[in-house]
Structure formats: structure tokens, C-alpha cells
Amino acid sequence: MGTSITTWENVSAYFTFADSPMALVLFSAGVTGIVVGLIRFIMKHEKEAFENTK
Questions:
Q1: 3-state SS assignment for residue 11
Q2: What is the end-to-end Cα distance of the chain in Å, rounded?
Q3: What is the 3-state secondary structure (H, E, C) of 40-52?
């Protein structure tokens, strides 16, 4: 599957941001912002849709 590993001996996990805590914080903050924004957008849409059906 695109890996050069041929055996499982001495294999360690690969993490893109494992050596950079700041990158992990920024990535987590970005994901949190996207999720919160999506929830707020959905709530706004549902509120407007409910008002239009009264």
C-alpha cells in the first residue's frame, strides 16, 4: 500500500507532527474551529428553516 516496509521488525509508528507540539496544537485548534463553525452553521440553517415553516 505504498510503503517501503517489508518486515515488521524494528518498525515504529509514523506521525507527521510527532516532534512538534505546536503543530499538534494548531492542527487541533483548526479542526475544533471547523467543527464548531459547522455546528453553528447547521444550527442557523435549522433555525431559519423552522421559522420559514411556521
A1: coil
A2: 54
A3: HHHHHHHHHHHHH
Which residue carries 475544533 as its cell?
Answer: 32
Q: Alpha-carbon Rg of the chain, whole angstroms?
A: 21
C-alpha cell belonging to residue 51: 421559522
Those residues with Cβ within 8 angstroms of residue 23's Cβ, 6 or more apart along the chain or in another chain: 16, 17
For residue range 38-54, what is the model confidence (pLDDT) as tens digits?
A: 999 999 999 999 999 87
Give yes or no for a contact between 17 and 24, defined as CB atoms under 8 angstroms apart.
yes
Most distant CA atoms of the chain, gap in Å: 65
pTM: 0.62
47, three cell numbers = 433555525
